[in-house]
Structures are given as structure tokens and as C-alpha cells.
Amino acid sequence: MAAPLQIASVGAPVASAPQRPFDFMKMYILVRDDIPLGFAMVAVAHASLAGYLKFRDTPEVARWLDGPFFKAVCKVNATEFDNAKQVADHVVLTESALDGREVAIVFKPREEWPKMFKFLRLYREAPAIA
Questions:
Q1: Max Cα-Cα span within the chain
Q2: Among candidates 127, 109, 119, which has minimal Cα distance to 48?
């Protein structure tokens, strides 16, 4: 298991992230796997802000902001995307430059997630090799 994340600012004491996954709130952002990388990057930025703005007055977001405010960004296929839309408390993002296609979905932070989220792939682009 990786060492806990250390969070610090100048002049502030260092706080360790929780040791167990159920001790912290996490926001999931899912991006469709058929969206070009540039649009995906913009979608993730917009999703993070849209999720915060939509749910900012909830106790879950207050708790999320008190912690290290973890986010998981996952790349999903069309079926996974459609299934995820059945989970409550989300915002679907569209891209006008792609004719209004749905590109991402962001969920209100929570501690416990439906089982399907455990099997989603983290979004990782392989670096280009020249």
C-alpha cells in the first residue's frame, strides 16, 4: 500500500490523509472513452467546478472540503456512462464543439459508492514516444 498523502502549506502543520478508503469523501468524474484527449481535459476541469457548484451547500461537500478532497477521474465506455447516470446526485456535462454530446459526468462527493465504481478504469493516457 502506498504511503499516505501528505498535505501541507507554508507555516501549517502537516496532516496525513486517512489510512482507510472509507474514512474520506471522494468525488468521481467519469469521462467517455470516445472523447478526444483535449476535450476530455476541459471536461474534467468543468466537471470538477460543476460538481462543486451544484452540491456546494450540502453537508457532504463541506466534509469533502475539510479533507484532502479526493477526486477519481475514470475513462468509461458508453454502457458504463449510461449505467452511471442511474446513480443519484450527478451532473452530466456536454460539449458544444461536439454537437452537444455528453462527455462527462460528475458525482456529489460521498464515502460509499455503488460496487460498479470499484471496477472503473482510472483515466491515464500513455505518454507519446518520439
A1: 48
A2: 109
- Kindly tell me the burial class for residue 33, based on how many C-beta atoms sit within 10 Å of its own C-beta (0-12, 13-18, 19 or more): middle
Which residues touch 108 (CB under 8 Å, ≥6 apart)?
A: 27, 51, 54, 55, 58, 60, 61, 89, 90
Number of CB atoms found within 10 A of residue 31's CB: 24
What's the mean pLDDT in 10-35? 68
Specify the residue for cell string 478526444: 36
pTM of the model: 0.79
